[in-house]
């Protein structure tokens, strides 16, 4: 029996947390609640030290962790400022770890490609329900822009248009989570994009597949859009691979 007349339960023990953790939690609460709003300067180290009664090391560690999480930006010689918090903020904080996983464990690239297919199939279904005439025009302009890059000596120009096509569909969905995830996935994949896309005839296949996707979006058919996207992504999955 404990001193309170009850059996001890390890799950109820008070855990001492580091001072930097406590400072971090307080500052995160102020950012989340809007007390510290986007664009506003963070309090100085001395102000935080005096308010919370902690030393400089705890404050500096908390500030560094806020920066690593993408919650604040630090400029040379200036005071940190609060960032605009959006879906892509959270994903940017994962960027370094994601790149390490994909680089260090080859099977993670396969996992990412599989996840991308599942993700974009749902995304294009949503886009088919929401696409406007203006959205369709933007996508068709993208296809023509990509067509103009076929003869470019820089293969990256064609590849960029290809990725931008998928970004635009994410935007059409109207869901900021889709847009943020799409940008993150495309960024992580881009380092492993080989130039198979530029094999003779392959570029026109890509354009034809994009056109089929746009036709389905214009028709407002989620099922057709999903089927067209599935064909495109499954064929193009081999474009992303470890080259060593």
TrEMBL record:
Molecular function (Gene Ontology), one example: DNA-binding transcription factor activity
InterPro entries: GntR_C, TF_FadR/GntR_C, Tscrpt_reg_HTH_GntR, WH-like_DNA-bd_sf, WH_DNA-bd_sf
Membrane-traversing stretches: none
Pfam family for this entry, one: GntR
SMART domains: FCD, HTH_GNTR
Location of the HTH gntR-type domain: 17-85
PROSITE patterns the record matches: HTH_GNTR
Swiss-Prot/TrEMBL keywords: DNA-binding, Transcription, Transcription regulation
Database matches in NCBIfam families: PRK03837.1 (NF003011)
Stored PANTHER family: HTH-TYPE TRANSCRIPTIONAL REPRESSOR NANR (PTHR43537:SF53), TRANSCRIPTIONAL REGULATOR, GNTR FAMILY (PTHR43537)
Protein name, per record: Transcriptional regulator, GntR family
Taxonomic source organism: Palleronia salina
């Amino acid at each position: 029996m404990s001193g309170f007349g009850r059996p001890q339960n390890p799950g109820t023990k008070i855990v001492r947390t580091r001072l930097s953790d406590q400072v971090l939690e307080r500052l995160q609460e102020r950012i989340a609640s809007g007390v510290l709003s986007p664009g506003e300067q963070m309090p100085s180290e001395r102000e935080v030290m005096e308010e919370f009664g902690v030393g400089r090391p705890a404050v500096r560690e908390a500030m560094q962790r806020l920066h690593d999480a993408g919650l604040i930006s630090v400029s040379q010689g200036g005071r940190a400022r609060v960032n605009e918090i959006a879906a892509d903020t959270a994903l940017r904080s994962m960027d370094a770890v994601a790149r390490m996983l994909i680089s260090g464990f080859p099977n993670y690239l396969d996992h990412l490609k599989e996840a991308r297919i599942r993700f974009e199939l749902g995304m294009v279904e949503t886009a088919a329900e929401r696409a406007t005439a203006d959205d369709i025009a933007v996508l068709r302009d993208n296809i023509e822009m990509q067509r103009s890059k076929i003869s470019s000596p820089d293969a990256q120009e064609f590849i960029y248009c290809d990725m931008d096509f998928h970004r635009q569909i994410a935007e059409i969905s109207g869901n900021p989570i889709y847009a943020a995830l799409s940008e993150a996935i495309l960024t992580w994949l881009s380092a492993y994009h080989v130039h198979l896309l530029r094999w003779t005839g392959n570029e026109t296949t890509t354009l034809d597949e994009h056109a089929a996707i746009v036709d389905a979006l214009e028709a407002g058919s989620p099922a057709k859009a999903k089927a067209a996207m599935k064909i495109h992504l499954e064929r193009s999955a081999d474009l992303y691979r470890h080259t060593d």
